[in-house]
Design brief:
OB fold (Dihydrolipoamide Acetyltransferase, E2P); 2 domains; 4 helices; 5-stranded mixed β-barrel; 5 strands; alpha+beta
């Protein structure tokens, strides 16, 4: 194996890692291929000669450190992370419901599902039993946003 092939593989590996950092971050295919080519070029460099292998190892190590530092300095990680804040809150209108209030299931409760009380939809939980859709129900417990109902026979 000649030294020029080893250097060519190393240049291709660096190019693939740079593509991973700047063009297609997060996919990983180019970065993994670049890392595999770097390792392959190191193995082939030692087949050329021990001294050449040491030089390629030192160069690859320095280049790898430089690429990692470059990745942290660029906005690569900013493109992958969520920067927006969530300002919404849980709609706490479930506390407007009272015990004994009657409504109708919209979906099957097994044991959770949707129900309608006063023309508003709520997520409710049955007290252990399955309740079919369009059944009459009654609230037996309200604990913050958890509404527990039973079927009215």
């Amino acid at each position: 194996m000649s030294a020029s092939i080893v250097i060519l593989l190393l240049i291709i590996a660096i190019g693939l890692v740079l593509i991973e950092i700047f063009l297609i971050p997060g996919i990983g295919i180019a970065g993994i291929a670049g890392a595999i080519l770097m390792i392959t070029s190191l193995v082939l460099a030692y087949e050329v000669g021990t001294a050449f292998g040491h030089y390629v190892l030192a160069g690859t190590g320095l280049i790898s450190i430089g690429l990692v530092l470059l990745a942290f300095r660029t906005k690569t990680w900013d493109r992958l992370s969520l920067k927006s804040d969530i300002h919404s809150k849980v709609d706490n209108h479930a506390t407007n419901l009272s015990l004994g209030e009657r409504g109708k299931t919209v979906s099957r409760l097994n044991p959770m599902g949707k129900a309608m009380f006063n023309n508003k939809y709520f997520e409710v939980s049955s007290k252990g039993a399955y309740i079919e859709a369009d059944s009459e129900i009654e609230i037996v417990q309200v604990d913050h946003n958890k509404i527990i109902v039973i079927q009215i026979n």
